[in-house]
Amino acid sequence: MEGAAQQAGIHRATLHRWEKGQAQPRLPELEALLDALGASAAQRCQAVALVDAPRAQALVRVQIARIAEQNGMASMPHGGDLLRAMRLRRDWSLEEIAARLGMTSWTIRRWEKAETKPSVEHLHRLCYALEAKEEEILALTCGQFSRLTTTAGRTVQELEERVHQFAQTLCDPPFGLKDLELLILRAEAWTLAARSVAGMRLLTDVYALTYNHLSYQDRFVEAVVVSEHYFDLMPTKIPDLCSQLEWQSIRLSVVLDRLQTGGRTTPKQCLKELGRVLPLTKGTRNEPDALYKISQILLRQGAYDEAIQAAEEASQAAARNMGDEGGEWFRGGMGVQLIRAGRFAEGLPLLSTGRSGDWYRLVETSLWKAEALLGLGEKEDAEHWLARAQSELITYEIRPLQPRLDALKARL
To answer: Could you say which of 225, 241, 289, 387 is the most buried, measured as most Cβ atoms within 10 Å of its Cβ?
Structure first.
């Protein structure tokens, strides 16, 4: 290191102070040292990100964008992404949060894009309004978000293990910190993806995890964006059976997510896309999922009999491909479709208790039971299930279902 310092024209005592965190280098000095060390583009990004100066941060954004473009990746996550996730978790628009803070939506948008940084006062007001967790506040206030991630130094193998562990708990409550954990995993995987094919495959897996989390939480607009990042990187993955099943599952789910966003996608286009994927799923765990999604779209079109038939086929396929538990869950899905069609007495007995540990769907089932009971005029029983759902929503922090709960309460 002493030789590199000499080559860069930096006194070794100065370099020692930088390494100890007692002083920060000016950008020209840091660039001279990185040149002397032969640092890669990704290493330069990590080093410059540690310099808390506007010019350095602007340079980091340019370098990150260049690396992302060269590798066909989306940009590396940053603190603005966390702010946006916290806002969308509350289901607030830019205009709503701006009005609460007495600011313009344009200012908030620039913060979320990391084009500018909020002052300490504004950041704390924002965190208070969004009911940020302690860990989220630390991630946003204790230096750049990237410092918590790109300097972690984990190898591909170590991060693979962390991703695997996180995948096992994706559906476990509490859900409040999932966004932060996934952003950190994405940032670490992004750094590794800039260096190797193995890192690129790992980033693909993290995108899949992120998509599943967002889709599971009914955050459809965010889920569709992440799915596009996933499909962009998918050709780099090894085409093994597990990867193929994952690709099919996300492709099936995103069809319905696009419809839910209220964009230009039509039910007819969705049915056509699902029809193309369905033959690929024969005999796999994805077959009942494909059939059930077809059922959901048919129901939206008012084709009730066809929708219920497709739901019944999904239940039968689940029993064949997934065993009794899968068959029971998709029978519950058929019950949901019957309730949606207004056939409450037929649908209510079919509702599944849900998969063990699947708290989100368990709460959702409580809401469907309440809706069926309201449809049958049994308000007292419906009130019981709504009270249970309210308690579980608070316990497991399942915010996306709150509007539906409120709408059903209004019908009591």
So the answer is: 289
Distance CA 171, CA 257 (A): 19
Predicted confidence (pLDDT) per residue in 367-384, tens digit: 999 999 999 999 999 999
Tokens of residue 236, six digits = 């780099």
Residue 398 CB neighbours (<10 A): 22
> pLDDT-derived band of residue 67, with 50, 70 and 90 as boundaries?
confident
Residue 408, amino acid? L
Output the CA angle 393-246-173, nearest 5 degrees. 20
Q: How far apart are CA 94 and CA 132, in angstroms?
A: 17
Give yes or no on whether 2-71 and 79-143 have one common fold: yes
| Separation of alpha carbons 318 and 87, rounded Å | 37
Q: How far is CA 200 from CA 18, 188, 203, in A?
A: 32, 11, 5
Q: How far apart are CA 397 and CA 393, in angstroms?
A: 5
Say which residues have a Cβ less than 8 Å from residue 14's Cβ, sequence separation at least 6: 5, 23, 25, 29
For 394, the 3-state DSSP assignment is: helix
d(C-alpha 346, C-alpha 297), whole Å = 20
pTM of the full structure: 0.78
* pLDDT value, residue 277: 92
Rounded to the nearest 10°, the torsion over CA 307, 309, 310, 313 is 160
Residue 375 token pair: 């449809």
State whether CATH 1.10.260 applies to domain 2-71: yes
Residue type, 265: T
CATH code for the domain defined by 79-143: 1.10.260.40
Both tokens of 20, joined, read 């100890």
| Buried/exposed code over 16-30 (b: 16+ C-beta within 10 A; e: otherwise) | eebeeeeeebeeebb
Decide: 130 and 111 in contact? Cβ < 8 Å. Answer: no
**DSSP 8-state symbol, 174:** P
Domain residue spans in the chain?
2-71, 79-143, 360-410
Q: What is the pLDDT of residues 230-256, one digit of tens each?
A: 999 887 665 666 778 889 999 999 999
Mean pLDDT of the chain: 82
